[in-house]
Specification:
Blueprint: E1 5-10, H1 11-15, E2 20-25, E3 43-46, H2 59-70, E4 79-83, E5 86-90, E6 98-100, E7 117-120, E8 123-126, H3 138-154, E9 168-172, H4 178-186, E10 191-196, E11 205-207, E12 210-214, E13 228-234, H5 242-255, E14 256-272, H6 276-290, H7 302-308, E15 312-322, H8 328-344, H9 346-353, H10 357-373, E16 377-386
Parallel strand pairs: 9-10, 9-13, 10-12, 13-14
Antiparallel strand pairs: 1-2, 1-15, 2-3, 4-5, 6-11, 7-8, 14-16, 15-16
Helix pairs in contact: 2-3, 3-8, 6-9, 6-10, 9-10
Length: 389
């Protein structure tokens, strides 16, 4: 897999108002994000620029990704995950680290019912007032499992902030809890809590150091003040207005202990080095999101939002992920992930463009060639800050 490039800036950089920061690229060939490029030089670029992903031969990481993906699960009856200590495959005969949970022991709001979901164009969605536009059926759960392992390899880690021993971690919008359970398996002394508007997380078998609740973070979670060491959040951009971001950050601030960290991982909807058909599709996507009051470009300003919410020691890292075969295994899988999302939101694109879904599909089909021709990519922003002591 190719050597990736990442860039970072701190709250000090942002406060300067110059919109520039250093990019440290990796030429080591290990598929990790190191502090310098092969020549040892530092590269400066403006905030809205992009850093190229240069594919190469990285069989170790590619092999690890393939192994991880081969183990991903599509049922909450079986837990399969990998960590630095090896892989674990469990069914109802669970190990000491996992426990079997009986529905009678769970709060009633964790049990799925007909009122929890609604159906649209053959897909199942949450039945709430949330603006989140993606479904929550088994097909989407499989996509989210895949996406988690792409992130894990492309970012070379699951989290960027420190977690103290015997600490507590909250996962805002945990979905099927792939990240939560992967982390819980790797960090058995840490207590993890996941919340989501859709009860699609496991309710039968999961690590002993995990708990899940069907709650809306915008309405406030049922946790007291100052009890968590870390709050983690990923890919909620498509369901958040500016006011929603403020509410989520305020809620994270409330439940964090003084000195605790809040980390957000979000992908920019914009495609770098995009061809004309790709630009057209994503412009329609932006229009569709704007019609619901959602501005996806806000991910480029997460550091400012964190600072405004009272967080200090704010940092932002950018990771450029390739789209397509030119980016080796990560690029292939990221492209697969992107097109699965586009297929899901096709009705929204058709409405925004005032054309038929068939016409949308024709444009999407043309994108396949463009991703290779233009060597397209997307930027993932990782922003984190600390609650003052």
């Amino acid at each position: 897999m190719g050597t990736n490039q990442s860039s970072s800036r701190s709250s000090k950089d942002s406060a300067g108002g110059h919109g520039q920061y250093q990019i440290h690229s990796s030429g080591s060939g290990h598929g990790k994000y190191s502090s310098r490029n092969s020549s040892g030089t530092h590269l400066d670029r403006p905030h809205n620029g992009s850093s190229p992903f240069i594919p190469g031969n990285h069989s170790n990481n590619s092999s690890s990704l393939q192994k991880a993906l081969s183990r991903r699960r599509s049922s909450n009856r079986t837990i399969e995950t990998s960590s630095s200590h090896g892989s674990i495959s469990l069914n109802n005969n669970s190990s000491d680290h996992y426990r079997q949970h009986h529905h009678s022991d769970l709060p009633s709001h964790q049990e799925e019912g007909e009122d929890d979901f609604k159906y649209y164009h053959g897909r199942r969605y949450h039945n709430t007032s949330s603006l989140y536009m993606l479904p929550n059926d088994s097909q989407e759960v499989d996509r989210l499992h895949l996406q988690h392992y792409i992130y894990k390899v492309a970012l070379d880690k699951n989290i960027h902030v420190p977690i103290p021993e015997n600490g507590r971690v909250m996962d805002f919008g945990c979905g099927p809890a792939t990240w939560t359970m992967d982390m819980a398996t790797e960090m058995s002394t840490i207590n993890f809590v996941g919340v989501d508007i859709s009860p699609i997380y496991p309710t039968a078998i999961y690590p002993r150091n995990c708990n899940f609740y069907n709650e809306d973070i915008l309405q406030g979670v049922s946790q007291p003040d100052n009890v968590f060491d870390v709050v983690f959040q990923r890919n909620l951009t498509c369901g958040f207005t500016f006011e929603h971001w403020q509410k989520a950050m305020n809620e994270a601030y409330r439940i964090l202990k003084p000195g605790g960290y809040y980390e957000c991982v979000e992908t920019d909807v914009a495609v770098q080095n995009a061809g004309p058909q790709t630009n057209l599709v994503f412009e329609h996507l932006r229009v569709s999101m704007a019609a619901r009051g959602v501005d996806p470009s806000i991910v480029r300003s997460l550091d400012r939002l964190l600072a405004a919410a009272g967080f200090t020691e704010v940092h932002v890292k950018e990771y450029t992920i390739p789209v397509g075969e030119w980016g080796d295994k990560v690029g292939q899988l990221w492209k697969q992930n992107m097109f699965q999302v586009l297929d899901t939101v096709k009705p929204h694109l058709a409405k925004a463009a005032r054309i038929s879904e068939g016409q949308v599909q024709e444009v999407v089909n043309a994108m396949h060639q463009e991703t290779a021709q233009y060597r397209s990519s997307q930027i993932v922003y990782v922003a984190y800050g600390r609650k003052p002591l």
